[in-house]
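Table S7 (text form). Paired inputs.
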Amino acid sequence: MGWFWADPVKTQTCPVSGSSKGSKCPVTHESAPKNAKSSTTDGCPVLHGSDPQDGLNPLNHIPANLSMERQSHQILELPKDRTTSSIPKGSEETGEFWEYPSPQQMYNAMVRKGKIDPNTGEEIPEDAVESMVFVHNYLNEGCWQEILDWEKKYIEDTNVEPKLLQFMGKPTQYSPRARWFNFLGTVFPTWFSSELPFDRHDWTVLRPDPSSSNTEHPGYKKVRYVIDFYGGPDDEEGLPTFNLDVRPALVDFTSARDRFTRWTEPILSEYFGSEKK
């Protein structure tokens, strides 16, 4: 991933069978951990490896004024319309929900980062950009749905929805969980996969909390989520799938308790007849 911006790993079918005009799917698909469970759901407006001082928005590390202008060498006309996500903003910026970059903005950002340069070996076809944006948006929506599932208990207690404050892509910084799966896959290849995620995101969520002492965001508590992205095998129709490993970071007792409870409740329910409340 690279833009917009664990519970059982969620598998989602890529909604695009490759990109337009016969180009292959622009997202790298790798194997997910063999021990990961799968299901279906929905990228990403973060410029990875960017200098935070390089005119970037600190909430998403995207250039504050990402151009909508067509490149001089550009052949195709790319859409300039931006899609509004279902993810509420936690900042005071204009607009209630986060917006995804337009295909033209995505293309300009890739040019800016040297991803569209025949001399780098990382050239991305222009006709793949629209599909790339669509897949990235789809995956981001799925990430948010997974976070809402984790936050369900707190939503029910307060009747207030959480918000996304900021996010950052860390594709080269593997999470401890991803490294552990990689190690298990090396030692026990029959039971685990040694494949590493092709991307990682850290999302900071504002959780409704009336007792919070957060003066910057009254009534909310900051909670960091870690998201590992894995590529899965193609489905029966030949479409690529993705696995999302979404969970709160182990930075405090509450997050540790939430992860322990979430992963033990199904076992307790199956073997001891307890019901999830």
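Next pair, protein 2 of 2.
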Amino acid sequence: MGAAVALAAPLLVVGGGPARAATCTATTGPYQRQVEQFLGRPVDGVQSAADCTAIRSFQATHGITPTAGYAGPLTWQTMSVMLAQRAAGTTPNRDGSCPVDLGRTACVDLTRQLSWVQDGGKLVYGPVPVRTGKDGTETRTGHKQIYYRSIDFWSTLYDVAMPYAQFFDGGIAFHSVDKSMWNPPGSGGCVNMRPADAKAYWNLLRNGDDVYVYGRKPGT
């Protein structure tokens, strides 16, 4: 049903996100070369003013703090996840980690922070980036089923809207958020999605449909 949806992850991201730091670091970070390559910068392993501007733009877009242009572990971890997502292409279940004998299934790969809907071995939608539980409130792994849906759910626990909420494990649900999918450290356990993807999941899934969560989110 429908063509696979390509991941949107440009090499250089500009604009959006929280306010930038007042100053830009001149310090060369431990992942300088990797970050330069990811951003399409000259790869020399030495921080420059232009490098810092590009790194800060990426950090501001995805809510990585401090937004000082330092090529540190968290910035490179975020980029590494993006690279793994791009590598998935249109065959996210190439290794068969998400069961293909359950019928229509929403798969969630915590390691790559990816989700997709498949019907048997056929890809129906995705893969798309998701934002799962942070350290201490990890999204639980295993075979689940959607049991409650609310298109305009309001969380009394967090006092926030959870549009297109589809619950599959206690208080854990698919739902849309407006922030970046690569915004650390993560959710309170839910599988956050971009609005268009959460709406597509709402239209594709029903109560009783299978959800399979596996892997381990980097940093948890």
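Confidence is low (pLDDT under 50) at residues 1-21.
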